[in-house]
Write a structure and sequence with these properties.
Chain lengths: 328, 263
């Protein structure tokens, strides 16, 4: 069932398996692989909201932070198991996204970006100052690891498992009438209304779903690092994941994953952390200059050029509607 | 209450301009009604009031007797009133098949959640949607075009795709906003034939059009608007005989309609 109709999920499974196999022997690689997987998940959520629904959200990292805080607080203060806390890590960001979506989604992309940026700042201020609950500047330490997944090798598999599930759900969605409706909205909202789509509720649901995806990333992050502070997942993260989605190709389901793999892995090869900003900015400029649709868009274009050479150029369609039946 | 799409005494103004002043129009299933008037006479405004894209200040809009004035436009679409746009609003990169599938959205019953989790019901519905899209395309002789990008089609075909998309979800009423604009004479004839066919299937068609020769060819009734008011209502033949209409509208239009085909 997955093979033919869910090609992206199949590729993702292969990628995940490769990533788990290659990195299993080396602790440094394993750490990179785990963090890359978590970032991929948050980047996928940015791809869904921006690439498919056209919501330029600069709050995906913050949604992840809310998920992480929810789980950290639930496990350290209320003694819940990390699995039970996952429910909060998914639900709280989704709830927050749902409630701000109505205010944000009718805005132009730039205004949406600024509004969600402000939301991120607001959440950070609350996290810094609400000492009793979030631990303020000091943060929350001693977050328990996930039972059964304490070993990095096993945790790595869990992370990439989450990424695979996210890709599967994402692909299910895009292969349905709802996914098509989402793309009509991105292209032209008036058109979507004329197709009978209730635009505002669908956009809210999408932002909520993408926030839950980011929340899952936050959940994995906090139980891996076992520490959460206002600097852990911040606006910087939001911008990075958006950048990774755009570099890989935000319109494509696997674009954000490819972008994260590339930027995060290559970024790690740089000698100094300080050079990362330079590297990311350079990557964005190069992508915007040579491949507006991202890497996958560029590859798809090149493939279509190759394919077009083999069969004859499709003839321009004659203008009378009653064209003769063309053999398939 | 009778089966009809009716607008009664609809008024709306933008700033100081009274765009519609107690205008009325009625379409019954199986009939083609023309809505004509000079530029700025309120045709498109009335059209937008009927489809819910504008909320009339006063007046009623009835679908088979139910007042829908002021309801959200996507609900009016779901009540069976489909529309096209004067300038086709299509994503040029999508195929004809995808466009028709988009038109089927009002018939979707499975929830967003079941689509997300790929439940059996949602997958079965998707297969059913694909089948129905093919049925709609077959009916309008579009199967050879199914997998061609809309951007590669001629304007006449793009408009037919828009019609297919609009009626895909079993619309009872179809509102066409200047469908013949930019079409060649041959394309106009094909369009007229298809509109007649739709009316024959029991769809009520409201046609906003400048081209009176097309109106004469197609319409059972014609409503003439002037400065937001209904100037005249009758058959195309009666409209042509009415001195007032001739003076304010056809006098100018008769000359342009001769060359209007290629406009």
């Amino acid at each position: 069932m997955i093979g033919k109709r869910r090609p992206n999920t199949l590729v993702m499974l292969a990628l995940a398996a490769a990533s788990c196999a290659v990195t299993s022997s080396n602790p440094v690689w394993l750490d990179i692989s785990i963090l890359t997987g978590i970032l991929s998940l948050i980047s996928l959520s940015a791809g869904l909201s921006y690439g498919q629904a056209g919501i330029l959200s600069m709050a995906q990292g913050v949604f992840a932070a809310i998920g992480a805080y929810a789980s950290a607080i639930a496990t350290t203060r209320f003694g819940l198991s990390p699995f039970a806390a996952l429910v909060f890590a998914l639900a709280l960001p989704a709830l927050m996204a749902w409630s701000v979506a109505r205010a944000v989604t009718w805005m132009a992309p730039l205004a949406t970006a600024l509004a969600t940026l402000a939301l991120g700042t607001l959440v950070e201020i609350v996290a810094r100052n609400w000492d009793d609950v979030t631990g303020g500047y000091i943060g929350i330490s001693g977050v328990p690891p996930i039972p059964g997944f304490e070993k990095p090798v096993v945790f790595n598999i869990l992370v990439w498992g989450f990424v695979c599930v996210a890709v599967l759900l994402y692909e299910n969605l895009m292969d349905s009438a709802w996914g098509r409706a989402l793309n009509i909205i991105r292209h032209d909202r008036t058109r979507a209304i004329a197709d009978g789509v209730a635009v505002a509720p669908l956009l809210s649901a999408m932002l909520a779903f993408s926030a839950a995806m980011a929340g899952a990333g936050g959940w994995l992050y906090v139980h891996y690092i076992t520490y959460m502070s206002p600097q852990s997942l911040d606006t910087q993260t939001s911008i990075s994941v958006l950048l990774m989605a755009v570099v890989g190709g935000a319109d494509f389901i696997l674009g954000p994953v490819i972008g994260t793999l590339l930027l995060n892995m290559l970024g790690k090869l740089l000698p100094a952390q300080e050079a990362q900003g330079l590297f990311y900015g350079g990557a964005l400029i190069v992508i915007l200059l040579v491949a507006r649709d991202g890497l996958l868009g560029r590859i798809g274009y090149l493939l279509s050029l190759l394919r077009r050479k083999e069969p004859a150029e499709p003839k321009p369609v004659p203008s009378a509607v009653t064209a003769p039946e063309v053999a398939p | 209450m009778s089966a009809a799409l009716q607008a009664f005494d609809v008024s709306i103004s933008f700033g100081g301009v009274q765009a519609l002043d107690r205008a009325s129009v009625e379409v019954t299933p199986g009939r083609v009604v023309g809505l004509i008037g000079r530029n700025g006479s309120g045709k498109s405004t009335l059209f937008n009031c009927v489809t819910g894209f504008l909320k009339p200040a006063t007046g009623r809009v009835l679908i088979d007797g139910r007042d829908v004035a002021g309801e959200a436009p996507h609900r009016i679409v779901r009540a069976g009133v489909a529309r096209t746009f004067q300038t086709p609003r299509v994503d040029l990169k999508t195929t004809v098949r995808q466009a028709v599938l988009c038109g089927l959205f009002p018939t979707v019953k499975r929830s967003l959640m079941s689509a997300l989790f790929g439940l059996a019901g949602a997958r079965a519905e998707e297969r059913e949607l694909q089948r129905r899209a093919e049925a709609v395309m077959r009916e309008l002789d579009m199967m050879p075009l199914a997998d061609i990008e809309i951007g590669k089609l001629s304007m006449g075909r793009v408009r037919m795709v828009e019609v297919a998309r609009a009626i895909a979800a079993n619309a009872t009423y179809l509102l066409l906003d200047e469908p013949a604009a930019g079409l060649s004479r041959a394309e106009q004839e094909v369009l007229a034939r298809e509109i007649r066919k739709l009316a024959g299937r029991g769809i009520g068609v409201l046609l906003v059009e400048h081209n009176f020769s097309l109106i004469r060819l197609l319409c059972d009734r014609v409503t003439v608007l002037d400065a937001g008011r209904v100037l005249f209502e009758g058959t195309p033949a009666e409209v042509e005989c009415d001195a007032q209409v001739l003076q304010v509208y056809l006098g100018a239009a008769a000359e342009t309609s001769a060359i209007g085909g290629e406009a």
